[in-house]
């Protein structure tokens, strides 16, 4: 039997939980994200609910998310608007030493560029795996690690990423696909990591490298590995038959600025710094095609408005973003964004180059791609 789910627009104005929470349907109605359970049998849904949420202590109280090492992917997004479905995410550390100027975690993580280990990470991870197994939660994709790089210098001290990979290997049946995101693939080439990932079925690594010239990388990603190191490591991973996607992410506004959106043609007319050029992007795509990466993922630059952002890119780009939208930058959540039309304009050329070289260049409005 499948559960009946209420959509957020349905009956939620007068949430009946205070009155009816003892009734099963009403309890589900009070879940923060009912769409997450769509399609599950009643028993499976109960098990997922038990893993994800704390039990309300009193009748009528709402369910709150539990804290986990193996956590729900993007836990604060409503699945109705953000169709991630049931996916896991393990963030190995808190904060990130790469200190990218465009970093999105600055919007929600205190001291974003001071990386630290998670307290009791190994213990909590093992506890979560036991619980997932006990509750018999069906396999789902897992992502490592969206809000911190798994291969920063502190990995050499704590080895939490190595520990995680070993645990994933031991609990492989919990996952459909394993996707790792990093700007430091050189560490993944070290034998203790490589030996594990070579044995992991449906493992893929997404390497982010938005720039081709290292002097530009130094400005935007001052603490991250060089471009040369990333490309060399991608080549080595591919020689070892590891599935790699290249992320040109974020993709920056580029010259020539299209005249249907801008009155002036140059980035400097708006006080914006040089980033990647059309030629840089072409070089990156040619490289990815040559080493037979699976695909190239592009995603537009968001200007984060985080409280913890410190020196961010808003002053550099806000004039440009405002001009692009008739004087008022588009604000969504905690960031300023480009219009979808303009974003598509800047993605079209890379897409054509990719097509001519036989490598897909893909993008998603929600940065949410199929993991198979
Ligand atoms: S690598 Fe990712 S998490 Fe780390 S600073 Fe850069 S954007 Fe932020």
Task: Provide the descriptors you would attach to this structure in a database record.
single chain; 372 residues; disordered N terminus; globular; 2 domains; binds iron/sulfur cluster; three-stranded antiparallel beta sheet; 34% helix; eight-stranded mixed beta sheet; 15% strand; alpha/beta; TIM Barrel
CATH class division of the largest domain:
Alpha Beta
User: What small molecules does the structure contain?
Assistant: iron/sulfur cluster
Question: Which shape, going by the Cα principal axes?
Answer: globular
| Series of secondary-structure elements, N-terminal to C-terminal | HHHEEEEEEHEHHEHHEHHEHEEHEEHE
Question: In which order are the strands of the major sheet placed?
Answer: 3-4-7-8-9-10-11-15
Record field, number of beta strands: 15
- Which range best describes the helical content: under 10%, 10-25%, 25-40%, 40-55%, 55-70% or over 70%? 25-40%
Largest sheet: 8 strands, mixed
Which architecture of the largest domain per CATH? Alpha-Beta Barrel
Provide an overview of this structure.
This protein has 372 residues and is α/β, with parallel strands linked by helices. It folds into two domains: 17-65, no CATH class; 71-362, TIM Barrel, CATH 3.20.20.70. 34% of the residues lie in helices and 15% in strands. It has 13 helices and 15 strands. It has helices at 17-20, 24-29, 42-52, 121-134, 155-158, 160-170, 185-188, 191-199, 214-220, 227-239, 278-290, 314-324, 340-357, and strands at residues 53-54, 64-65, 71-72, 88-90, 93-94, 116-117, 140-144, 175-182, 203-208, 243-251, 295-300, 303-304, 330-332, 335-337, 361-362. The strands form four sheets. It has an eight-stranded mixed sheet with strand order 3-4-7-8-9-10-11-15, covered by helices on one side. Strand 10 (243-251), helix 11 (278-290) and strand 11 (295-300) form a beta-alpha-beta unit. Helix 4 (121-134) packs parallel to helix 6 (160-170). The chain is globular, with a radius of gyration of 22 Å. It binds iron/sulfur cluster (SF4). Residues 96, 98-100, 103, 105, 148-149, 183 line the site of iron/sulfur cluster.
């Amino acid at each position: 039997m499948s559960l009946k789910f209420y959509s957020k627009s349905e009956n939620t104005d007068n949430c009946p939980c205070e009155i009816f929470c003892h009734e099963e349907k009403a309890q589900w109605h009070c879940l923060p994200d009912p769409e997450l359970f769509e399609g599950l049998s009643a028993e499976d849904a109960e098990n997922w609910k038990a893993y994800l949420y704390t039990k309300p202590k009193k009748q009528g109280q709402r369910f709150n998310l539990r804290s986990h090492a193996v956590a729900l992917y993007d836990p604060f997004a409503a699945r109705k608007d953000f169709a991630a479905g049931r996916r896991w995410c393990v963030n190995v550390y808190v904060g990130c030493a790469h200190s990218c100027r465009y970093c999105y975690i600055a919007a929600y993580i205190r001291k974003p560029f001071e990386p630290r280990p998670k307290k009791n990470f190994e213990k909590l991870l093992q506890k979560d795996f036991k619980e997932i197994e006990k509750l018999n939660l069906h396999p789902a994709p897992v992502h490592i690690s969206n809000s911190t790089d798994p291969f920063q210098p502190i990995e050499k001290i704590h080895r939490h990423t190595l520990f995680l990979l070993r645990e994933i290997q031991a609990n492989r049946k919990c996952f459909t696909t394993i996707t790792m995101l990093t700007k430091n693939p050189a560490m993944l080439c070290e034998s203790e990591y490589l030996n594990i990932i070579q044995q992991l079925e449906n493992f893929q690594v997404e390497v982010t490298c938005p720039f081709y010239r290292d002097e530009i990388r130094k400005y935007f990603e001052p603490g991250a590995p060089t471009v040369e190191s990333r490309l060399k490591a991608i080549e080595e991973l591919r020689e070892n038959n590891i599935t790699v996607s290249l992320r040109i992410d974020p993709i920056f506004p580029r010259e020539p600025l299209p005249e249907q959106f801008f009155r002036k043609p140059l980035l400097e007319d708006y006080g914006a710094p040089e980033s990647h050029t059309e030629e840089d992007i072409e070089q990156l795509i040619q490289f990815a095609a040559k080493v037979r990466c699976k695909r190239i993922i592009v995603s537009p630059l968001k200007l984060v408005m985080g409280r913890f952002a410190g020196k961010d890119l808003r002053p550099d780009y806000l004039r440009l973003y405002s001009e692009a939208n008739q004087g008022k930058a588009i604000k969504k959540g905690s960031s300023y964004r480009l219009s979808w039309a303009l974003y598509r304009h800047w993605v079209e050329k890379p897409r054509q180059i990719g097509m001519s070289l036989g490598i897909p260049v893909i993008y998603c409005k929600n940065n949410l791609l199929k993991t198979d």
